[in-house]
Specification:
41% of the residues lie in helices and 24% in strands. It is of the alpha+beta class.
């Protein structure tokens, strides 16, 4: 049996302190890493600089109490205080930063999705109400123009709903590694053939076939989204180059390059965030939902791959996807 009964707390990841007579008599490894090794022997008011938490720890009587929202080390913590049989206090700190971050991310996502849906919906309602005016309905040109706008905005809403549902399905299966054999060279050529008019899409590969373990539908969505972005933001009559290269290290590199205006460096780290747009007005005019690259990132990660975007203003953009090859 250990000489110090609290030494077993050193093996848990939760920061834990023992407070005796207002002083920290023991701090496990996690607590020392968080608060500093010097806390052992410190007055609890110095070790935990929070009046509410100190009042909780010094409160007489038994039982367990909790204070929410202690800020320590840049994170938010819950504090539990148990009074032991000896009268000492066992103080445990539970990090809420991940929970807080997830809650904020969810709140932001709902707010952004609501905003993105509200904008076209308001346009549809406005033009529909205008068409209900007999005078507006009597002019065929005006009626056709308004109906065209309503149709465009409805299609925009439909695309957004489809992307939201797609993202939800991907996140629900993100921990399930797909196992089907997919030839990415054939898939890239097939997907590139879907794009007609505007930019010319070419596909080159350093081998006739390159198989990966994957979900064919999701991988087609990745290639389609990345090419679609390149077509939208490249030169109107330019070229989008899709290159597939298998490496000796067992990876397949899929690079999609356009010759557009490029993207400023300040935007690159955030391009895969949901609803983030480097150029909001241009993205909406092109029909973008703001979810395409987020969907790409989630699918590539599910396939144990990597996704990266390289660009310089005025020099075009290259989106790169790395996927582990299946061994023949």
């Amino acid at each position: 049996m250990p000489s110090d009964p609290f030494q077993m707390l050193d093996h848990i990841r939760t920061p834990a302190l023992v407070v005796a007579n207002g002083q920290v008599s023991f701090a496990n490894a996690a607590a020392r890493a968080l608060l500093g090794a010097h806390v052992v022997g410190d007055d609890v008011r110095i070790a935990i600089r929070n009046p509410d938490a100190v009042a909780l720890i010094q409160k007489p009587g038994g039982g367990t109490a909790r204070i929410h929202g202690l800020s320590v080390g840049g994170s938010v913590w819950d504090v539990d205080c148990d009074v032991l049989a000896s009268g000492d206090r066992l103080v445990s700190l539970y990090d809420l930063s991940v929970e807080t971050s997830v809650a904020k991310s969810h709140s932001d996502f709902v707010a952004n999705a609501s905003h993105e849906l509200r904008t076209p919906l308001a346009t549809i309602i406005g033009y529909a109400e205008t068409l209900m005016n007999p005078k507006a309905g009597e002019d065929p040109a005006t009626r056709d123009r308004f109906l065209g706008i309503i149709r465009h905005e409805a299609q925009r809403m439909q695309s957004l709903v489809e992307d939201l549902m797609s993202l939800s399905r991907i996140e629900a299966t993100k921990h399930e590694a797909p196992l089907d054999r997919v030839d990415m060279v054939a898939l890239a050529r097939e997907t590139a053939g879907e794009f007609r008019g505007g930019a010319r899409v070419t596909v080159t590969a350093n081998r006739e076939s390159a198989a990966v373990a994957g979900d064919r539908g999701q991988l087609a969505q990745v290639v389609r989204n990345v090419i679609d972005n390149a077509v939208k933001y490249g030169k109107p009559d330019g070229e989008v180059r899709v290159t597939l290269e298998s490496t000796e290290t067992g990876w397949l590199l899929i690079a999609v390059q356009d010759d557009g205006e490029g993207i400023g460096p300040e935007h690159l780290p955030r391009l895969t965030e949901r609803f983030y747009r480097a150029d909001k007005s241009r993205s909406r005019a092109a029909g973008g939902t703001g979810l395409g690259l987020s969907i790409v990132k989630h699918i590539v990660e599910r396939h144990r791959g990597r996704f990266d975007i390289a660009s310089r203003a005025g020099s075009g953009t290259t989106a790169s996807i790395m996927l582990p090859l299946l061994r023949d």
